Every structure is written in structure tokens, then in C-alpha cells.
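Glycerophosphoryl diester phosphodiesterase structure dump, as promised
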Amino acid sequence: MKKSMKRVAMTIAALGLSFAVGVTSAFAAPDAARAGKGDKDLLSPDRVLNVAHRGASGHAPEHTIVAYQLAKKMKADYIEIDLQMTKDGHLIAMHDETLDRTTNGTGLVKDHTLAEIKRLDAGSWFNEAHPDKAKPAYKGLKVPTLDEVLRHFGHSANYYIETKAPEIYPGMEEKLLKTLEAHRLIGKHAKRGKVIIQSFSPESLKKIHALNPELPLVTLLWYENQQGHITKRELDEIKTYAIGVGANFDRIDRAYVQKVRKSGLLFHPYTVNEKPDMKRMLDWGATGMFTNYADRLTDLLKKNCK
Ligand code: G3P
Ligand code: CA
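C-alpha cells r here:
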């Protein structure tokens, strides 16, 4: 995508917010979008961040190097990485606390050493679950450690990392910060927004904030069977440690998104896979979103720049 087009795409979320004050639709206003800010600051509310949820997980086995590579190829702004911790204290890229769904192993991650987990196949399940997308190359893929992912992509990618189940992994936050520092992804040499940390655990985020107040944090919310609702008081509390909120997109409405945005927080809904839903989120003022199909969001943003 040309730089100018990318800049236009990334202003759409800001226009979604301006809907509240009278703009008919972000998607109907590409010219107004061109008047937006530059594309330097990843955390600007004028940008729409394309976050590849578990990598390009709609196309390849989630949380594998292959899925992250594909996400980059699809022009995702961020690779999303869920973290679990092994019995011997290694941070690995995995969504579930158990090995069962995404490998040929069984049991809890915390009960297995890294060496044991490295013997597992993290790709064949995908071929079986998605025969239409299966590839021989996915067979035998390994579970990567966070360190391996960061070594592989270095500063060529941006990382949106989630502390999963931090209550069962003591020391997870310290280990995460140490790993990021070792790769110079945080600290004085790093570009702001190179790494975003997210969690459903406010305790985990507050701990990280105390350890490193510069690190951008996003608090995740989950509305199970009820319509999402958030108060000014809750938003004010979140703002004491985080720069944004993420919530399940199918339980929120325009008023919710605009309330979050007006509070000054970014808003990144998850997991938005269909283009009509992506359009709706942008129209409501989302400043990015998690998707298994980074290619679809890239395509949508490109089309709306033309
Ligand atoms: O991190 C945003 C979204 O990924 C939260 O849901 O369960 O896919 O980690 P989950
Ligand atoms: Ca996640």
C-alpha cells in the first residue's frame, strides 16, 4: 500500500468517533480522512491497527512462526501473541492453558518442560480441522518460545502480547519484561508502540505498569451473555494504567465504543473476521481490531482509500 493510502486508511477510526458529532459515516468520508494525521505514531487515535490474532490464524496453525510470517505478508501492523509458561519457566506462544487443542500432547502447559513441549506437533491439528486449508508443511510445526519469535522477527514486526492466566504463572510479568529488554524492544532504544501488552487480568497489567510505566497496556473485557456496558468510573480507573480497551465485538454497540473513545482510550475489539463486522467497528470508532484474517482488513482499508 502506498504511504499516503495507508495514512488515509489509518484515520478511519478517528472518523468513526466523529460520527458522534455529525459525520454521516467514516466509510462515506474518504476525503475527510485524507485530512488526518501522519502514520508515524503507532498509538495515535488516528490510526487503525490491524492486529493478526494468533498470527494469520484463519489460514495457518495459530501461534506458529508460519502463521506470524503470513500475518506480516498480509501487512498486519501487529502480531498477536498469547503467552503461557512452561514448568521450567519458559514463555511460550500458546492460547490455551492445556496442550490438547493445538498440539498432539495432553495436559497443562505448566506441568511440562520446554523440552517436552518442543517434541510436540503444533500443526497437524490444523490440517485435520481445516482440510480445505491444510498444507503438508504444517505437519510437525513446533511451539515457539517468545524468545524465538522475537529472535526471528526482531524489529521488523510489532508485537501485541497477552499475559494469559497470570495467576497460575508467578513471575510471568518479570520474565516477559526481561525478554523484551533483551531484544531491545522496550527501553530507550525502542520505538513507542513496538510492543503493546494486553490482559484480561488488571492485576497483571498493574504489575507491569509498576515495573515499567512507559509500556502501553490494553485491558481486555469479556461480556459473556450480556450487552457490554462500561461506566465513566471504570474508564477513569483503566486510564490510570492503560491506554486502551479491548472487548468482544459482538456484545458492544456504537455508544459503548464512543464512550471509550471519548474517555481518551483506544478501542480494539476482538475477534473480527467478517468484512461487514470490520466496517461496523470502524464506523463506530474502533482504533484497530484483532482478526484471524489480517488480509481481509488490509483489503478493506485499502479499498476505502480509493
Ligand atoms: O487478545 C484479544 C483476544 O485475543 C482475546 O481473546 O481468547 O483469543 O485471547 P483470546
Ligand atoms: Ca489473545
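Residues 80, 82, 162 surround calcium ion (ligand 2) (CB under 6 Å).
lmk if u need the other ones
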